[in-house]
Amino acid sequence: MLLAIDIGNSLIKFGIFESSALIDKFSIPTERDYSPDELLFGRLHKNGSRFLTYDAVAVSSVVPELDETFRKALTASFNVIPCFIDHSYDFGLKIKYKPASAAGIDRLINASAAAEKYGVPVIACSFGTATTFDVVNANTEYPGGAIAPGLRVLSHALHLKTAKLPEINITEPEKVIGSTTESSISSGIFFGYIGMVEGILTRMFAELSLRPKVIATGGLAATVAGKCSLIGIVDENLTLDGIRKITERTDRNRPTKRTGER
Fold first, then answer.
1. pLDDT tens-digit map of 198-226
2. CA-CA distance, 97 to 146, in Å (whole number)?
3. How far is CA 116 from the centre of its chain?
């Protein structure tokens, strides 16, 4: 059994896999000051009436200050040393990013998972704190993509940089023309964001001279996909599936020690 953990800037997602089946998942807010004791959830130990034991724990993290806390908590709780996915892992892609070591692990995981699950060429879009567009071309090469602010980041930045505009929770507006300050902000940010997504994807299609499949994931994926016809599939488990696939592929391809080796 595998425990996959995706430590993101806004949420930490947990996925419990039995073979290739995701049997449970949940998430918690990302807080930089978690203690190891705060991360020992009963849900990780029991599924219904069944007690869980793990053969492996794999972690993708974009919040380095939490890595040691998770390492201590997971090792103490499950007696398994967690592996943190890094650039030495086998993503099943030819990495063309420059330098390859600068490519975000979360981006590589999403690109790898999208290519394996849906075929190439493909663009994996993650709609979270940041918005990322990651391309895998027809040769299974990862040339890179684009990074933009997320929807909530745009709203927060507008509030911080203006004296009179309030910060609001962005929801899908009923119409573009807002009749209040709040609805005008919501409309401008939401539909402007949709326009950005469509514009970036359209330009990527032109550079590639074809139209790849577009896979959306992340907390806002369904909302954005509902307004963007260029997105073909919403896969909320893309990153967790990617963690599992990459861990299994890397373990299979690691050289095994011969008898007598240390």
1. 999 999 999 999 999 999 999 999 999 99
2. 12
3. 16
Q: Please give the Cα distance from 148 to 182 (Å, whole number).
A: 23
CA distances from 225 to 59, 121, 198, 211, 222 (A): 27, 19, 10, 16, 5
Burial class (CB in 10 A: 0-12, 13-18, 19+), 144: middle
Of the candidates 139, 160, 135, the one whose C-alpha atom is nearest the C-alpha of residue 149 is 160
Question: Please, which residues have CB within 8 angstroms of residue 254's CB and are 6 or more apart in sequence?
Answer: none
Ranges 122-136, 156-170, 227-241: which has the least confidence:
156-170
Distance in angstroms (rounded) separating the CA atoms of residues 144 and 135: 6
Give CA–CA dist 65/15, Å, rounded. 21
Element (H, E) at 101: none
For residue 67 the two structure tokens come to 């890595």
Q: Are 155 and 109 in contact (CB under 8 A)?
A: no
Helix axes 105-118, 238-253, angle to 10 degrees: 90
Where in the sequence numbering do the catalytic residues fall? 106
C-alpha gyration radius of the chain: 20
- Name the one residue in this structure whose structure tokens are 């911080």: 160
Whether the Cβ atoms of residue 121 and residue 138 lie closer than 8 Å to each other: yes
CA atoms within 13 A on the CB side of 158: 22
